[in-house]
Every structure is written in C-alpha cells, then in structure tokens.
C-alpha cells in the first residue's frame, strides 16, 4: 500500500560546523528591568515584563523615528510583531498581547460559555471574574447580598466551578465592583488589559491601558490569540493649575465630556498630562479614566507619578511601584510627542459641573445650573441622591462626602432626599466602617447598599415614584441614559461629584449651589457648607475586610462544569450558521431606530441581567427600548409579512421561523454605552444580517463583527433619511472586500428602487468571521485544523549535533501517528546519517509506507549523503529541490504538492542558504521550515536582511505549528518566530551598544539620548568577547560569523562603516542608536 508522497529531507546527515546556542533575549544581564516582579499578590508566576516592553519600544522607535505619546508606548510595547506590524494611528489594525483579562458576572457567563466551546483546558492569559452585576438594591447591603446569593445560585455556582476548572481567579458576590477590585489588586503602570465592561478604563488611574471589549474578544485573549485593535488616535488633555474647594476630579471628565461629546473620543485614547496631574490622587485619576467611556474613548491614561506609587504602596504592592520607577522614563509621554487633538484645562479655574439629564455630555457648571433647571423645566426636587459606584467610591470620595454630611449633622440637619451609599469594594467598606465615615453617612440618612453596581446599572427596586412620574435624581455614577437607573423613562438623572450629590441632597433641590447658597440649621440660622475635605489614602492603611477571593485549585482536572439543559438562565451555545455566499434579496427592515440607540436600548439590563447566560431567553429584550422612526414608539414594529404590529423580538422571531433575514437601520453613534456583547448576539440569534447606521460606537461595531453580522455605515449619512421603514432591500454581500463599499438596493412600496453605498471597516480576518458565521466559528475551524496535525505528521528524530535534533517528516492519510524518539544519542560528525537511515526503514516498515517523492528544503554538503540512503531504501522516489543539482527535479516558488488530503505549498525563504525553501501544510495551518528556524543560533550564510525578510514571511504565513530542521517542534509558529526576529534585533542593538559605549550594561531606555565623546573601532572578535562574555571562549570564533552578518546589514543601512585594511568597524556617530 502506497499512502505517502512526502518525506522531507531538509536535514539529513550531520553538520560539520559548530552552531552557537541561544543566549536569550536579555538586553543587559544585570539590567534593573530583569527583575521578576509579580503582577499581583493573588497570583504566582505571572510577572511584569518591562524588559520586553522596552525591547518592543526600541524596535518601534527605530521604525517610526519620532517621539511617542504615553498611550502609544503602552500599545506599541504590547505588539505581537513590533518588527512587521503596520503602524498608523487611526488606520492600522494592531495585533496586541494584553497582560490580563477581567470579566464581570453578567458578561462572564457568555464569555466562559464561548471559551468552553473552544475546548481548551486552561486560560492562556491571566484572568479574573468579578460578581458585581447581579445584586439588586432593595433593602440594604447584607439583606440584598443574601437575596442575590439565593436567586443567583445557579449562575454563581457555574462561574465558580468554571473559574476553578479553567484557572481563573474568582471574586465572590460582595467582594466589590470589578473596576475597584482591578485598581486595588491588578492594575500596574505600563500594562495592557482588557475587560468585558465598558468602564474597564477606570484602571488608567494607575497608568495601565485598560480597554473595554466584548466577550468574544476576551475569549480570543484567554485562548492565547493576539487581540486586534484599530490603532487608536491620541487626544491629549493638558492639565495645569490645581483644584481647590468644591472642585473634584470628577469635574475634569464632566468638563471634557461637554467639550468632546459622547462620540468625540471614538477611536482615540485620552491621554492626560501636564503639571496638573501631579495634584490628583490615584483614585481621582481613576474616576476621570472611568468616564472616558461616556465620550466613546478606547481608554484613558495618566502618566506614572508619585501619587500612583503611594497608592501601590498603600495597597501592599510597593514592589510594583519600585519596579515602575526603574521603567519610569517610558511611563510618560516623550518630549515633543504630538496629539491628534489637544485640550487644555486650568484646574485652578475649573468649576464643579453637573451633566445631564438623559446624556452624560450635557455639561453645565454649577454657576449656571440653576438657570438651566428653570429654563428647561426640569423637576427641581431631588428625590434621591446616590453616591458610590465604580466611578466614585474611593476612600477619598467617601471621606469628602462624609465631611459634608458631618458639617450638616453638626448644624442639626440631615439629607432631605432619600440617600444611598454604594461602597466600591469590601476593602473600602471595611476601611470606612473602621474610620467612621460609614457611620456618619448612615447618621446623615444614608442607606448602605451592597458592594456592587446596584442602581448605577438599573439593579434598583425603586419604590418612591411610579413609572412615568417625572422626577430628578442626582448621582456620582457615570451614565444617565433614559431609564437606565430605575427603568422609568421620566426620571431625570444627573451625574456629578459625590460632593455635590451630598450638598444637593441636604438642600433637596437642583437649584442649590453650595458655593454661594446658604442653608438653615435646626434653629433657622443660615450657614454655608464648608468645602469638603478628605485624605486620599487612609492613614492607618486599608482594612481588607472579609475574604471574598477564590483562587483556582492546584488540581483542576476532576472539576466538572455543569449546565442544566432545562435551565432558564444558562444555555450551552450552538454555533451560528456560516454565510451562504449569496446576496440577500428582498429582505425587510426590522426597525429603523430614531435618535439614541444605546446598548441599553438594544439589550436592557436591570431585571434582564439574570438571563445573560441564556441567549434565547435574553433575546426577548432585543431592541425593546429603541424608538421606531415610523411611529415614535418603543417596541412596536410592523411585520412585513403579516402586516400586523408586534414587539420587536416577536417580529424578528417570526422572520427567523420563515427563513427571512432582516436588517436594522440606525442613527448616529449606534451602540454607545456598555460593552455587552448581547446587543450583538441577540440580533444574530434572531436572524439578523446587518446593522446599517450613520455611525457606530467602537465596542459595539467590533461585537457585531465577532458574531458574524455586518455593521455598515451610510457612505453619505444623509441617506439615512431616504430609507422608508416599510421598504424591502437587497444587500449585495458578495461585494464585501477590504476598503471597498457595498451596495444596498432599496425597493420602496411604490415600486421604484435606488442604490445606496455603504461603508465598513472590515479587514481580511474580520471578513473571515463573517464568512464562517462568527469569530468563534473561525477559531473553532482553525483549532480543528491544528488538532489534526498529529494525524498526518510523523517524524524520525536523531541528533545533529549533540544538542540539536534531526527529523524527517512523513505525511500519512488519516492515521494518528506519534513521535519516534532515537534510542541512542549521537553527538559526533557523521554518526547521525546511518542511524537515521535505520530509523527511517523501521518507520516505513511499521507504517507499510513507501516514499514516492522527497522535498529538500536546501542543499548542504552535510545533507547530500542522506539522498543516496533514501534512494537505496525507496529507489522509486523522485527528489525535488529548488535550484537543483545532480539530477533533482526543480521546485518553483509557489509550487503545490498534493497527496492524500494534504496540500503543501513551496515558497522561497532564502537567508540560511540561498536555495532554502519552506513548505506550508495548508490543511493544518502548519509550516515545514527546514533549517531557517532552528533557534536563536541559526547560521546565516548570506544577507541577514534577506534572512529576516524570510522569517517575517514565515511568521505571517501560518498560525499553527512549525516543523524546523533542528530543534523541537514549535506549537505556535508565529509567536516563536516572532521571538527569533526579536532576538536578531536584540543582537543588532547589542552590537550597536558596544560600538557606541564599549559595554553592554547601559540602560536600554537611556541609549537613545546618550552621546559618546568618541567613536571606537572594533574587530568582530572584539565585539564577540563583550557580547558573548558568558559563552565559552571556544565558541567565540563561530560566533563572530553571526556578528559579521549583523555588521554587514548595518553597513548596508548606513549605520556603521568598515575599514577593509584593518578589519575594524566603527559606528557612524551622527545616527541615533536605539
């Protein structure tokens, strides 16, 4: 039986030369950035990698040759491929490697259900789940927590067991709000994290780029895949002066929101800088970053400063603060860094602000707010004042609020309004209980709620007004969309600082200005409230309170994660159907939404939160809050088939049952608000094809793409007004291509038709998601291909030289084959070939296989002896080789070989040798790399630039394994080859550093600014003795060959010059060294 066509002979025989082993990627062996400092006290073995960040930045600086903003430094230091990544702010799609993932309990359910379907045993990136969304505010903290534990037991048990199973940290109900827990325990300066909540940017107060994403993005990162982000623009906000009196950090972001509006930050990172940042507390900076979500910003960041260091120290993470000081130069913007837009705020002149109602960007300074209340006819009475939430529940916030409350109590008065207090974490609750602020706020009239989101996200069983009753509430929350807090569309919700919330609650009216207006004490005497005071950090340190953390167990294999098939809260996900490859013709418009369509309108929270783990049940809330442009009503649309009016979800279900696809037409900034991916999952589940709008909020647009839907925008926004709500449309999906519009053909009822052009932001990978039916389907497809690798590949291994393995790969149809290891280690020149031939004979006999064709990756004098051995064993074999010698058959670049379901495509990858070919194994997304990838010590026998180009070509070709000519199998080829590329760049940096400074031990972050007094001359062997000082001297001579390759490359680039007579090399002094 002949079932094998390929035997790869890229490494037959042994090498006569000595290969230099890997020295690693160390920049400087004794560099302060070499320290091992753990990211958090809750996990072991997860370290902050400032050294890697610095290396990536050095590469990017060399490419961009310009000063960088702090936001850019964070993002670019986390690039998956700093060498090859296209970088253009606002245009390029970046592949990034975040440091960690955080999920809250409402979004974690769907994220974990998706991760389970990926079939992986453990998360590949550190992750945590935080139980904060499912606790309804009703009676007060402990009672509400007990009730939540009872009614949410099924979900909590699911999350707890899944976290234990998949190595995820679990913060139990009552631990606090995700963003406060992250700031207290996980954020670190210069890091990059993602979280399945739109207010994840809160952690930017500690100098980390923390970005809100949908669950599908989180699944990618947890599965170890790079995360894709469109390269953000950077909006600078320069702060000068210093706040005082009633002005609080919250007023900065309220002012910025008024300037930029709810969509002004879309696609951008807000970077705060300037001398004014030094006066802000770490938690105050967190407040500002938190509300960046309200202006659509990707995230917000502050530069590292002493206030951050103090906070790290206070939260028992001084070692991180000390480490950050070593890297401090890269934890702020470069001098001369340019921003896409720049605002400036003088904190000394900034007034307290109040924003709202119904939108967080309607900003009014306190001096003009009374007039705005009267002019707009807003309900004057403050029915409820609410402080706390993730935005404003720090020790400083609570201390300042308590100082105002104490001032009122000292005058014999309390809150006129109902008043609630939401501690951000158990640590905050325990600390303010110990220090007395909590008792003051309770004495003032406050009801202390659970350490959870509560009313901020609509988890509020409000009793004091009826639905539809106009009223006003004032909160220190972050969001105030219609009906968000209490599901009452007539509630006028205003957001401001905790200070003004307390003051207005004392007065009981929106028209009160504490800076100018007087109150009356219990005896009728007038007085002015004293400006708030409060410490940023507790003098006695934080009290951790109750233990609410569950660490993953050491033994996780026996843990079972059960989902009941009869559950109405949890549902195992079924994959979405792939695109049928056709244009959609004659499909209806489910709804044309008018005005704001936030994620709250698309998938309401509140009582619906309990169904977040059950896609079919929660889909019954799809778009029920959106206003229909046809009739101005919510949740009432006309069924295009029956002609009857019905609820939006019911109409969509009817279309789905009939096999009819549908689209939604939307207005500006569609999908603003939270990160909830349910707002994308629900329309996909109910049969939607596309959402067509004037513009999208960033996270929602990505979520729609991830679920296999088409988020499209009118190329001309005015076309929104041309679309009749009762028209049928054709969507020409077959036109979908990167950078090209697609056509919407509109058929109004009058029988006419017209075309509208639609724009999109899909790249090639995202188009794959659409074609496959979802990003998860794409991942599953590629995982299935990866899982099949062992079924078609077997290798015969021997040693070359003693520390390198020699392999031959044999593809075999549909057989599961295992690795055959040599029983004898061979470590001398010439000894490997006979043993290899014996092993090959054994394997062919065992598999009943015959070699018909052999592909050589390249030709070395030490490989050719293997060819006669093969031909003796299989005389019928045809031997193929690029640039053939001695009768082989030529291989051309791009030539395809097929056998038994295996497709191998040859492509030229010179560098190790001029004739070197690699082979892509298409069915398994794998690559046979020959000798081109055999570790950091791969010898280069020609131009180093050519070799690096080949490495980049291989890296970009596949996502699966690489089978090299020497060394172990590489399971994730792109990541490992990326390391090799970085290693080569590091060698180049080391050569430059020694040429310039005469030594290696120079801080990598400082080299760009250094200026040598003289330029030294070096021979290659002299350079080797410095760079490879830890390597045995017997290996210095072969190492010099690699150094010469680096020098030749640098000479071609104009960075060094060579004296041919003396053999010495010099740095060209006027060029910067990175």
From TrEMBL:
Q: Which InterPro entries match?
A: Acnase/IPM_dHydase_lsu_aba_1/3 (IPR015931), Acoase/IPM_deHydtase_lsu_aba (IPR001030), Aconitase/3IPM_dehydase_swvl (IPR015928), Aconitase/IPM_isomerase (IPR050926), Aconitase_4Fe-4S_BS (IPR018136), Aconitase_4Fe-4S_dom (IPR036008), Aconitase_dom2 (IPR015932), Aconitase_mito-like (IPR006248)
Where located? Answer: Mitochondrion
Keyword Lipid biosynthesis belongs to the record: no
State the protein's name.
Aconitate hydratase, mitochondrial
Q: Where is the Metallo-beta-lactamase domain positioned along the sequence?
A: 834-966
Q: Which PANTHER family match?
A: ACONITATE HYDRATASE B (PTHR43160), ACONITATE HYDRATASE, MITOCHONDRIAL (PTHR43160:SF3)
One Pfam family assigned to this protein is Aconitase_C
Q: Name one GO cellular component term.
A: mitochondrion
Q: Which cofactor does it need?
A: Zn(2+); [4Fe-4S] cluster
Cite the GO molecular-function annotations of the record: 4 iron, 4 sulfur cluster binding; aconitate hydratase activity; hydrolase activity; metal ion binding
EC number(s): the record gives: 4.2.1.3
Keyword terms, alphabetized: Hydrolase, Iron, Iron-sulfur, Lyase, Metal-binding, Mitochondrion, Transit peptide, Tricarboxylic acid cycle, Zinc
**What family name appears in the similarity comment?**
Belongs to the aconitase/IPM isomerase family.
Give the record's GO biological process terms.
Answer: secondary metabolite biosynthetic process; tricarboxylic acid cycle
Q: In which pathway does it act?
A: Carbohydrate metabolism; tricarboxylic acid cycle; isocitrate from oxaloacetate: step 2/2
- What is catalysed by this protein? citrate = D-threo-isocitrate
Give the matching SMART domains.
Lactamase_B
- Species of origin reads Talaromyces pinophilus
């Amino acid at each position: 039986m002949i079932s094998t066509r390929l035997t790869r002979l890229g490494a037959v025989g042994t090498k006569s030369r000595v290969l230099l082993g890997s020295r690693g990627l160390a920049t400087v062996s004794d560099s302060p950035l070499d320290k091992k400092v753990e990211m958090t006290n809750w996990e072991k073995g997860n370290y902050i990698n400032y050294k890697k960040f610095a290396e990536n930045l050095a590469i990017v600086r060399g490419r961009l040759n310009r000063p960088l903003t702090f936001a850019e430094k964070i993002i670019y230091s986390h690039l998956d491929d700093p060498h090859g990544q296209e970088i253009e702010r606002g245009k390029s799609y970046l592949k990034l490697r975040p440091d960690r993932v955080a999920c809250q309990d409402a979004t974690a359910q769907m994220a974990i259900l998706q991760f389970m379907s990926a079939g992986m045993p453990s998360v590949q990136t550190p992750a945590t789940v935080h139980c904060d969304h499912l606790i309804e505010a009703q009676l007060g903290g402990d009672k509400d927590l007990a009730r939540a534990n009872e009614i949410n037991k099924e979900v909590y048990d699911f999350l707890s067991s899944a976290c234990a199973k998949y190595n995820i940290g679990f913060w139990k109900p009552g631990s606090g709000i995700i963003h406060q827990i992250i700031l207290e325990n996980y954020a670190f300066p210069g890091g990059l994290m993602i979280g399945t909540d739109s207010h994840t940017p809160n952690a930017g107060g500690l100098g980390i780029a923390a970005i809100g994403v949908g669950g599908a993005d989180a699944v990618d990162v947890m599965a170890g895949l790079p995360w894709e982000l469109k390269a953000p623009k950077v909006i600078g906000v320069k702060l000068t002066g210093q706040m005082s009196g009633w002005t609080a950090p919250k007023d900065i972001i309220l002012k910025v929101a008024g300037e930029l509006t709810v969509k002004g930050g879309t696609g951008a990172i807000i970077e705060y800088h300037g001398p004014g940042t030094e006066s802000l507390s770490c938690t105050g900076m967190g407040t500002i970053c938190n509300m960046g979500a309200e202006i659509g910003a990707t995230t917000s960041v502050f530069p590292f400063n002493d206030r951050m260091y103090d906070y790290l120290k206070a939260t028992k993470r001084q070692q991180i603060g000390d480490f950050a000081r070593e890297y401090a130069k890269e934890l702020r913007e470069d001098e001369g860094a340019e921003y896409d837009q720049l605002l400036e705020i003088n904190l000394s002149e900034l007034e307290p602000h109040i924003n709202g109602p119904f939108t967080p960007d309607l900003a009014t300074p306190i001096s003009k707010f009374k007039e705005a209340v009267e002019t707009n006819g807003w309900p004057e009475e403050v029915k409820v004042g609410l402080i706390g939430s993730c935005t404003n529940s720090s020790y400083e916030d609570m201390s300042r609020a308590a100082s105002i409350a104490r001032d009122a109590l000292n005058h014999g008065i309390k809150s006129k309004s109902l008043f609630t207090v939401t501690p951000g974490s158990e640590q905050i609750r325990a600390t303010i209980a110990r220090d007395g602020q909590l008792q003051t706020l309770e004495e003032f009239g406050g009801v202390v709620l659970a350490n959870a989101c509560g009313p901020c996200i609509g988890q509020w069983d409000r009793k004091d007004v009826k639905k539809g009753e106009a009223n006003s509430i004032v909160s220190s929350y972050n969001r105030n969309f219609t009906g968000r807090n209490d599901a009452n569309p007539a509630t006028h919700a205003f957001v401001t600082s905790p200070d003004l919330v307390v003051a207005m609650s004392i007065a009981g009216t929106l028209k009160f200005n504490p800076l100018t207006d007087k109150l009356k004490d219990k005896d009728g005497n007038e007085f002015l409230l004293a400006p708030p005071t409060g410490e940023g950090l507790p003098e006695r340190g934080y009290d951790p309170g109750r233990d609410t953390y569950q660490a993953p167990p050491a033994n996780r294999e026996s843990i079972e994660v059960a989902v009941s098939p009869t559950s109405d809260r949890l549902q195992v996900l079924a994959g979405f159907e792939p695109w049928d490859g056709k244009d959609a013709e004659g499909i209806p418009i489910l709804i044309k939404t008018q005005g704001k369509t936030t994620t709250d309108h698309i998938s309401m929270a509140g009582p619906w939160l309990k169904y977040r783990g059950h896609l079919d049940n929660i889909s019954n809330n799809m778009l029920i809050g959106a206003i229909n442009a046809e009739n101005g009503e919510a949740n009432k649309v006309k069924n295009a088939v029956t002609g009857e009016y019905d609820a939006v979800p019911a109409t969509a279900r009817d279309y789905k049952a009939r096999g009819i696809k549908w689209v939604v037409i939307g207005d500006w900034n569609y999908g603003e608000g939270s990160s909830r991916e349910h707002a994308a999952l629900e329309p996909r589940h109910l049969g939607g094809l596309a959402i067509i709008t004037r513009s999208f909020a960033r996270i929602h647009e990505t979520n729609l793409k991830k679920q296999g839907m088409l988020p499209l925008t009118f190329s001309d926004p005015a076309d929104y007004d041309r679309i009749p709500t009762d028209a049928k449309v054709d969507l020409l999906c077959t036109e979908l291509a990167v950078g090209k519009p697609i056509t919407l053909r509109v058929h109004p009822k009058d029988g006419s038709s017209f075309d509208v052009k639609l724009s999109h932001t899909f790249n090639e990978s995202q188009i794959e998601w659409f074609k496959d039916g979802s990003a998860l389907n794409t991942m599953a497809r590629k995982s299935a291909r990866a899982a099949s690798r062992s079924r078609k590949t077997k290798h015969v291994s021997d040693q070359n030289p003693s520390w390198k393995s020699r392999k031959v790969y044999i593809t075999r149809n549909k057989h599961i084959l295992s690795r055959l290891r040599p029983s004898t280690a061979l470590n001398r020149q010439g000894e490997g070939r006979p043993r290899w031939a014996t092993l090959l004979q054994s394997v062919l006999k065992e598999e009943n296989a015959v070699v018909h064709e052999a592909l050589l990756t390249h030709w070395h004098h030490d490989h050719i002896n293997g060819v006669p051995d093969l031909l003796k064993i299989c005389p019928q074999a045809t031997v193929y080789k690029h640039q053939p010698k001695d009768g082989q058959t030529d291989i051309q670049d791009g030539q395809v070989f097929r056998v038994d379901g295996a497709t191998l495509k040859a492509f030229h990858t010179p560098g190790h040798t001029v004739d070197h070919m690699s082979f892509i194994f298409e069915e398994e997304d794998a690559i046979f790399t020959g000798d081109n990838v055999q570790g950091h010590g791969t010898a280069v026998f020609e131009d180093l630039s050519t070799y690096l180009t080949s490495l980049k070509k291989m890296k970009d070709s596949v996502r699966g394994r690489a089978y090299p000519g020497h060394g172990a199998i590489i399971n994730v080829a792109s990541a490992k080859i990326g390391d090799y590329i970085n290693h080569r760049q590091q060698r180049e940096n080391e050569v430059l550093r020694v040429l310039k400074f005469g030594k290696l031990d120079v801080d990598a972050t400082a080299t760009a600014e250094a200026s040598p007094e003289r330029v030294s001359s070096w021979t290659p062997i002299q350079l080797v003795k410095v760079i490879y000082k830890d390597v045995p001297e017997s290996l210095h001579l072969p190492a010099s060959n690699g150094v010469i390759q680096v020098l030749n490359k640098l000479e071609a680039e104009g960075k060094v010059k060579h004296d041919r007579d003396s053999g010495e090399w010099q740095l060209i002094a006027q060029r910067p060294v990175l």
